[in-house]
Input
Amino acid sequence: MDSYSFLYSSSHRTGLLSGFQRLRTERKMCDVVLEAGGISFPCHRALLASSSEYFWALFGGTTAESLADSIRLPALTPEGLEAILDFLYSGWLSISPSKISVILEAARYLQVETAVSICEHFMIDGLSAENCCSYANLAERHALSNALEAANQTIATDMGTLLQESRDDLLELNIQSLMAVLDADEIPGVKEVELVKLALDWLDENGPLPLLKSNLLLSRLRFGLVSVSDLTNLNHRAMATPLIRSQLTRALEYHRMGSAQPIRQSRQSTLRASSSRVLLVGGGPSADWPEQQVLAFDPRSKKFSSLSSCLPLRLRNHCACSVGGFLFVIGGEEVKEGDEDGKKPVTKATSNQVWRYDPRFDCWEQVESMLERRAQFTCCVVEDVIYVIGGRHTRPDTDTHTSVSSVEFYDMTMGVWRRGATMPRPLYGHASAVLDNNIYVSGGLPGNQGNIHSSNHGDNPDENRESCREFLCWDRKGRVWEKRASMSIARFSHRLTTAHGYIYALLGMYEPFCDIERYDSQSDHWTRLRPLLIGSFKYGMVSMPSGNLLVFGGIRWNDGEEVIMKSVLEYNTKKDCWREICQLPRPLTGTECTLLPLPD
Output
């Protein structure tokens, strides 16, 4: 049996199109004339029918046009028809921003889907603040889903610029795009009240609309992000429908919730910020004089910025955490300027104050104070409940320090602090982390001894050393503290955090090693990991959603002197490796870190 080979020549197809284009240019063998806008285009039926579903149906059926010598296309412009005919005859489509509309109109009408796809890619690649609104309208009209999504994203990203420079373009936007933009979780640099005004102006410009469409549009606004004064001034007729009035009522109720706001979050009160920033609260270039400025670190750009509202107090040895998109700054030592005669340059008083920062309105508010004054304590969040554990306070009358073993938790529903299960002994300078909704506490310096429900494998005879290596677990349901496997290194003023189902302990003050270690709760076992790049203490640390750990600043010893650092280090918990990713704007020590969504 003979064998066969099938070989393909791309030059033959190119030559075929070139031949048809030459015949068209010379107007030879043309058997039909297309007319648009008074201009005639001689063509070949066979090529048109083989390239377009429209012409295939037109010439292949029993219609009057199938045998007509001339066919009028009044829906098309000469520019659009010419561009599509050039594409059919050559494979090249000449597009410009000024002609994209008529070309796409012709491609859709003549059902040349390849040309439609080329137009869509052209729109996506050329999106900018200047054309995103017109491209969104064009994409919506011609059902170009990918271009429409890209244009809507560009509008959301550039909304701040568009509101200032191209508001008329926004008012001409199709309703589907406007609703998609108002659904966006991130609209940088734009306050919600500006979006409310835009939506109401759009309704005035494009209305009246049926109530259903009006409600669909306005329900995408987040009225919880609008101040009470602005909410009460919204008198537009479209706001009077039962649905929108109920949303306004819920927004006003949210503003009246006070301490319960963080645990009553909904989409209506969630900031339009898709990623969290790392907040660096307190601390400064000097351990004795902390700054009130709060730094924000963007992990994506590796850049720092400052909150416009400063911390109300100068604090050190405090704690910071976030719940429901709010920042909480708790306790610590309030550092004040000295008396007038200059005998005391600074004074420090242990505080029980709790301050809450609302990034929605860039404001600080003092909430209910803790039951006890605390510094060098630890705090953690479990299921939107803040727990504070141990610490010590300075007695103002004797200027002596007293350690505490008490535990408190913040009941946000009632706005009060309540007592938790007391630790077996007083501790300060310890650290805590949450794993599987249980609270773990490590290290620190102890006070009086107490009883512990032991699950450890043995005790070190050196009681002080053991205390600094101690690792405790609080079962919140059983309200009991249990002893777990001790760390391999005694630690004080160190850091503890959770990532990928493990607990990580990072070094503290005056440790002879730079080692970090990882705890496995299943096996109740610690494992030594790669040491920190540079031995330091009093640094800020946060665990990122990726599981990587970021370490900010701190103090290290250099030739017997303390040096404040500017480095920002990243630890990859999966690869067990360290690297420096950037530098702080200035040396920093004593800061507390937490993640918080912030408006751009």
